[in-house]
């Protein structure tokens, strides 16, 4: 009798192990379907297992993944509800609200999230998790309210301001969005993020005036945002006044004014740029670094303003050239000396039409400032001038300098351009073998813009693939 009982127990145990093995194999097969992209077959198999074994978390998670992927939220919701009736799992309760929201049952979703919060004891962490899932489901107003409740639990007036600000702007609560964004800025000092959020405000009806009022402050953080606001709204004079205040407030020794000058120059506000640069030069507190930079860019701005004028004033052009010359004499070792010489050549060539003078500047630049970006640009311009004069041999001599100059990442594109021009000249001269070698060498350099441009020409294609 005892032996019979043992056999019966062993038989039941083997059946149980067999069932377990069968479930594990089916789960592996369902995951294989899922990995292979056959989501429907995976969902069907996960559901079959879940129907047989409602408590199996692996099968439940598989159903959630696959039905969510298939956007079958209405079918998924009752399966989650069934599980919640037998197990109080916080993550599943939060998921239930998310799935209901995506299924279009928004009021039921709000109730489900409230029940999830109660299940988690209304703690800050639980409310934050619910807010994150609500935001992911684009339930923006609900997420904002959950973050506000989490803030109350935390006790800090600034916590979650970044998240609340984003959600407020997304839901059209512009004033709230501005307040929270500025609160976040004072906490984290993330200027670029704040700038991006406030740019959204400027795009909204009435946003400009709301932001103007909100930025009416003289603390350093507000001043920097106010300057950005004035630039964005093209109130350059007001932006200039703020730049002066920033320079004083931060003890920037001319840096804030110089940077404003750069921004104004790039926007074509030459008069304001000149004024800002001059303020730096005349300042008794500005550092030598910013004074030197301001002196150079003052002249560059004069040059740009001259080129943008309707008519050419030769006397003004000569004055600009004199100023460039003074910069070169006083700062022969600084980077902008070579830049000043290059722009002197361009001014003489383009505006004054004085080719000999331009060539003189460029010959000096190529000789004395080899290895600089300005010298590389000057080399290409000088070679092109000699080509235009039909002096191809001198052009080849100039271009040869590029090969004799140490290669750097900054100079590589210039070297490639010089090589292509040299190959063009050799081709024009009938030296096809030499031209072919240069073209082929450049063609082996991946990603060179000069190669892709050059190889579009049928003549070059024929030479390279000859």
Write up what this structure looks like:
This protein is an all-alpha fold. The chain contains 26 helices and no strands. α21 (373-388) packs antiparallel against α22. The radius of gyration is 36 Å and the shape is flat.
Helical percentage: over 70%
Count of DSSP-assigned helices: 26
Indicate the overall shape: flat
- Main sheet record: none
For the CA atoms, what is the radius of gyration? 36 Å
Structural class: mainly alpha
Strand content: under 5%
The SSE string, one letter per element, is: HHHHHHHHHHHHHHHHHHHHHHHHHH
Total E-strand runs: 0
Q: Oligomer, anyone?
A: single chain
* Straight-line N-to-C gap: 97 Å
Give the uncertain stretches in residue-range form: 1-19, 453-466
Q: Round the mean pLDDT to the nearest integer and report it.
A: 88
Helix and strand topology:
Elements: H1 2-35, H2 39-52, H3 57-69, H4 73-84, H5 90-102, H6 106-119, H7 124-136, H8 140-154, H9 161-170, H10 174-188, H11 191-202, H12 207-214, H13 220-232, H14 236-250, H15 255-266, H16 270-282, H17 288-307, H18 314-330, H19 335-350, H20 355-368, H21 373-388, H22 392-404, H23 412-428, H24 432-443, H25 449-454, H26 458-464
Helix pairs in contact: 1-2, 1-3, 2-3, 3-4, 4-5, 5-6, 5-7, 7-8, 8-9, 9-10, 10-11, 10-12, 13-14, 14-15, 15-16, 15-17, 16-17, 17-18, 17-19, 18-19, 19-20, 19-21, 20-21, 21-22, 21-23, 22-23, 23-24
Short description:
This protein is mainly α and 466 residues long.
